[in-house]
Amino acid sequence: MRAYVLVNVHAGKVREVVAAISQLKGVKHVDACWGVPDVFAYVDTANEKTLNELVIDQIGKVEGVINTETHIAVD
Q1: Which residues, 6+ apart, have CB-to-CB distance to 21 below 8 Å?
Q2: Alpha-carbon distance 46 to 65, whole Å?
Q3: pLDDT per position as a tens digit, 16-28
Q4: Is the pTM of this model over 0.90?
């Protein structure tokens, strides 16, 4: 299941958040961006359950993350 996860981050934490998210299983690419949101992550997981776990249980708990918004890619 491919998705784009948009991440808002506390000021001064963008580099640390990008580094942490890039290490998570299922994360294929992460970019820090100017403006809002602060970080775009492209992820690819086996199914909805693993996407849910990645976004809620892992990305959302990275220190510095304020919130996430997930957009599932469609074919």
Answers
A1: 7, 27, 30, 39, 41, 59, 62
A2: 24
A3: 999 999 999 999 9
A4: yes
Alpha carbon 67 to its chain centroid, in Å, reads 10
Amino acid at site 11: A
Q: What are phi and psi of 34, to 5 degrees?
A: -80, 145
CB atoms within 10 A of CB 59: 24
- On whether the CB atoms of residues 8 and 17 are closer than 8 A, the answer is no
Mean pLDDT value across the chain: 97
Return the number of other C-beta atoms located less than 10 Å from residue 48's C-beta: 11
- DSSP code of residue 71: E
Q: What's the longest Cα–Cα distance across the chain?
A: 36
